[in-house]
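Justification of resources, computational component.

The compute hours requested in this renewal are based largely on the per-chain cost of generating structure records like the one below. Each record pairs the submitted sequence with a full structure-token output. That output is archived, and it is also reused by downstream analysis tasks.
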Amino acid sequence: MKNSKGGIYRRFVKRPMDFILSLIAIIVLSPVLLIVAILVRVKLGGPVLFKQQRPGFNEKIFMMYKFRTMTDERDENGEFLPDSVRLTKFGRFLRSTSLDELPELFNILKGDMSIIGPRPLLVQYLPLYNELQKRRHEVRPGLSGLAQVSGRNAISWEDKFNLDVKYVENVSFITDWKIIFYTIKKVFVREGINSETAATMEYFEGSKVGDNK
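The structure output for this chain reads:
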């Protein structure tokens, strides 16, 4: 097992590279960001951004930004309708092309996230992780990661967490750039966007006793 705490790349290169790449991406993609923001406002209404607290490096909570992909439709009791109902055709397009993720570039610029790392998940999952799964928080969460290029929402939670930990144990310049190139390929072919049983990934309810410990 490699020491996830060490490495010149992780300590001295990864964060400056993230800052430079995210800044360049924001500048180059600013017309796309503007167009998507306008379309979201017209087709889905406001607010344009979806904001949610997520755990980051060492489980520190930060506010993550994405373009919204769902409507605010509710039932007669004021409860949100199922995701499959609120996720419109336009919202599915944003997710399948990963355009909804673009505002996370600002999270990377701020230092909350990295270009590559385990995806930031829900705060309520924190008490459900076993000791192995908790290791995903030993690095900054990423815009994309090893789990995303290995199946994204089409693989199980256990497989996803195992890949997250595998990344933590093998952080390197070469690994990050391989994942970046694979991510670009995945976005173009739109693979593994949804799980096999739901419009969005099912909620994590904890691993079975004895799994991944």
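The first helix runs from residue 8 to 28. The radius of gyration is 17 Å.
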